[in-house]
C-alpha cells in the first residue's frame, strides 16, 4: 500500500527501437503495481464477458428477438454517457484508487443481482435491462479511472507497450469469456454462468486494493459538478489530435459492430446456437491477442495518426467480408439451420471466424495508438475527464453499433448491417482523417493533444 508508483514524477525513458516482433513485457517488470492491476483486471474481465454474453443469449432465449437484445444498448447508453463524463470529473478530484474501488463494488453488486434473478427464474426482461444499465454505469466509471491511473504507474515511453499488454488482456477476456459463457449456458444454465462472474470479480478488487493512493497532480479539481465536466470538454476543443482519435473510433464502432447479430447468426444463419455465437466473439478476440503478441516493433511506430487510420480501414474491410459471408449463406443456401452444433455450416463459420479475427487484430492496433495518444498528450489533472470521454466513446460506440445493427437487421436481413457498415467505416474514416493534417502528422516523439 505504500509502494510509490514508478511513473510518478519519473522522467520519460528514451524511445528505443525494439528488434523483436514479440510483445514487450517490460511494463510488467518495471512496475509491480501495474502488473498486479493488469493480472487482476484480466481475470475480472473474463467474468464480465461471461456475463455480457450470457445476458444477450438469455434475452434472446426469452424473446427470440435480436431487437430485444439490442435494447440493452438503448437503455444503458444515456446513463453510461453521463457516468463517463461525471466519473472522469470525480477521478480528477479524488483518490483514483478509491473511486475505482467504489465503482467496482457497484458493478459487482449488479452481477450478484443478475445471478439472483436467474436462480429465482425471473423471466421479466425489464429486470435485465435495469441491472445491465446499473452495471454499465459503474463499469464506465471504473474503467475511466483505471485508465487514468496507468500513466502514473509507468514512464511515458512505456505507455504504448502497456497498451499492447492491455490488448492481450482484452483479447483474453473476449476469447475466454464468451467461449466459457456459451459452454456454461448450454451445460449448466444461466444462474451458474452469472455466478462465475460473481467469483471472478474479486480478482479485480485485489489489483485495485494493492495500489497506492493516487491523487491527481498539477491542479486537481476542488469542486465537482457540471462546470468541471464543461472544463474537461473545453480541453477537447483545443486538442484536435485527441478529438480525432475519438471521432474515428466512434465511426468504426457505430457502423462496424456486428456482435449483436451473433445469437441470430448461430440460431438462424450458420447454425450451432450459443456455441457458434461464443466462437464468433472469441475469433474477434483471438485476432486482438495475436496482434498484441506481435506488437514488439509496432509499438515503436512514430506516426501514430496514420497507423490508426490504416488500422481502421482494414477493420472496415474485414467487417464487410463478414457481411459478405452471411449474404452468401442467406442468398444462396435454402437449408434451415438448427441450434445443434452438428448442423453448423462449417465453411461459412470458418470464413466468418477468419474475417472477425482480422477485424479484432486491426481494432486492437488502432486501440494501442489511440490510448497512447490520450495518455501521453493530456496533462494529468485533465486525464480523468478526458479518459471519461474516451471510455464513453469505446463503450458507447459499440452500443450505438448494436442499435444500428440490431435495428437494420430487423427491417432488412442479418447480412445487411455488416456490409453497409463496413463500407461506411472505410469511406468515413478516410474522409475524416484527410481533413485534419495535424492528426496525419502526429509524431509519438513529440506528442501534441
UniProtKB/TrEMBL annotation:
Keywords: Cell membrane, Membrane, Transmembrane, Transmembrane helix, Transport. InterPro entries: MFS_dom, MFS_trans_sf, TM_effector. It is found in: Cell inner membrane. PROSITE patterns: MFS. The chain crosses the membrane at residues 37-60, 66-87, 99-120, 126-144, 164-185, 191-211, 246-270, 276-294, 306-327, 347-369, 389-409, 415-434. It comes from the Bacteria. Pfam families: MFS_3. Residues 196-449 form the Major facilitator superfamily (MFS) profile domain. Its main location: membrane. It is a multi-pass membrane protein. This is MFS transporter.
Amino acid at each position: 500500500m505504500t509502494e510509490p508508483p514508478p511513473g510518478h514524477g519519473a522522467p520519460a525513458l528514451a524511445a528505443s527501437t525494439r528488434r523483436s516482433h514479440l510483445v514487450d513485457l517490460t511494463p510488467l517488470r518495471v512496475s509491480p503495481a501495474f502488473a498486479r492491476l493488469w493480472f487482476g483486471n484480466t481475470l475480472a474481465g473474463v467474468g464480465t464477458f461471461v456475463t455480457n454474453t450470457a445476458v444477450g443469449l438469455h434475452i434472446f432465449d426469452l424473446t427470440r428477438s435480436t431487437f430485444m437484445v439490442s435494447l440493452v444498448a438503448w437503455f444503458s447508453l444515456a446513463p453510461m454517457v453521463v457516468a463517463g463524463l461525471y466519473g472522469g470529473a470525480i477521478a480528477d478530484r479524488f483518490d483514483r484508487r478509491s473511486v475505482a474501488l467504489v465503482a467496482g463494488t457497484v458493478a459487482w453488486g449488479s452481477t450478484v443481482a443478475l445471478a439472483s434473478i436467474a436462480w429465482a427464474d425471473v423471466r421479466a426482461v425489464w429486470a435485465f435491462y435495469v441491472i445491465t444499465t446499473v452495471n454499465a454505469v459503474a463499469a464506465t466509471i471504473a474503467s475511466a479511472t483505471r485508465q487514468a491511473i496507468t500513466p502514473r504507474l509507468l514512464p511515458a515511453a512505456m505507455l504504448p507497450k502497456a497498451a499492447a499488454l492491455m490488448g492481450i488482456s482484452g483479447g483474453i477476456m473476449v476469447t475466454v469469456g464468451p467461449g466459457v459463457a456459451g459452454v456454461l449456458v448450454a451445460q449448466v444454465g444461466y444462474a451458474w454462468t452469472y455466478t462465475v462472474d460473481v467469483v471472478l470479480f474479486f480478482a479485480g478488487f485485489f489489483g485495485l486494493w494493492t495500489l497506492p493512493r493516487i491523487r491527481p497532480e498539477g491542479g486537481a479539481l476542488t469542486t465537482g459538478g457540471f462546470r468541471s465536466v464543461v472544463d474537461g470538454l473545453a480541453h477537447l476543443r483545443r486538442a484536435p489530435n485527441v478529438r480525432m482519435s475519438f471521432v474515428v473510433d466512434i465511426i468504426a464502432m457505430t457502423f462496424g459492430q456486428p456482435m449483436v447479430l451473433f445469437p441470430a447468426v448461430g440460431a438462424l444463419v450458420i447454425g450451432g446456437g450459443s456455441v457458434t455465437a461464443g466462437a464468433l466473439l472469441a475469433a474477434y478476440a483471438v485476432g486482438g491477442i495475436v496482434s498484441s503478441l506481435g506488437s514488439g516493433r509496432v509499438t515503436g511506430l512514430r506516426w501514430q495518426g496514420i497507423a490508426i487510420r490504416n488500422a481502421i480501414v482494414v477493420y472496415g474491410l474485414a467487417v464487410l467480408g463478414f457481411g459478405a459471408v452471411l449474404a452468401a449463406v442467406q442468398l444462396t443456401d435454402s437449408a434451415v439451420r438448427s441450434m445443434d452444433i452438428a448442423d453448423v455450416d462449417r465453411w461459412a463459420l470458418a470464413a466468418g471466424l477468419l474475417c472477425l479475427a482480422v477485424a479484432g487484430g486491426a481494432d486492437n492496433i488502432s486501440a494501442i495508438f489511440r490510448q497512447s495518444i490520450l495518455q501521453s498528450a493530456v496533462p494529468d489533472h485533465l486525464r480523468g475527464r478526458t479518459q471519461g470521454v474516451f471510455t464513453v466513446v469505446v463503450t458507447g460506440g459499440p452500443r450505438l453499433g448494436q442499435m444500428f445493427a440490431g435495428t437494420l437487421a430487423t427491417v432488412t436481413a442479418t447480412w445487411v448491417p455488416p456490409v453497409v457498415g463496413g463500407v461506411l467505416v472505410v469511406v468515413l474514416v478516410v474522409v475524416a482523417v484527410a481533413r485534419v493534417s495535424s492528426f496525419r502528422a502526429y509524431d509519438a516523439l513529440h506528442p501534441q493533444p
